[in-house]
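haha ok so turns out i had the wrong file open the whole time. this is the CORRECT one, sorry everyone. sequence first:
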Amino acid sequence: MAAKLAYIFFSMILVNNYVLVKFLGICPFLGVSKKLDSAFGMSCAVIFVMTLATAVTWPVQQLLDTFGLGYLQTIVFILIIAVLVQLVEVIMKKYMPPLHKALGVYLPLITTNCAVLGVTILNIDNGYNFAESIFCALGAGFGFMLAMVLFSGVRKRLEDAKPPKCFEGLPITLVAAAFTSISFMGFGGIIENIFKV
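then structure:
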């Protein structure tokens, strides 16, 4: 059991990274990754919301299935995530005003961050139990953080580079994101070999 949980956690960080492999959560990935501190702060908020959303949505899904209301899954999950994001925003505004200001409009956008909704729905679709779902959400959150922090470093280097005029701005950012994504393909068989799952 512990090996399976570790496998789920590390595979979500390296092999099945929601941003770099599944291409979920691209909006904050491209929008907030310009500065390391804001990328790290956004990542911490996403980890918190992903994990808490999973902890709440998994039992809610069991309840929906019990009453034959599984078709309401997406609507209910979005409402739960929206409430949790508002909670995070209120806490950040009160206790971390500089970070709240740095994140700006991207903090409320966690509500519509498809990576958060994706992890809650894919946990159910993969048939994970509660513990597996929590580890999957934690791994997905840390994978999001790894992608954001790495890409903020890449973008810092891009500021110093002098790309051709046609690649300046968003085009060179997208090319760099593609190369960052390709670099994660190398982790493909490593996790399976380590945990023998």
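The longest helix spans residues 36-66.
again sry for the mixup
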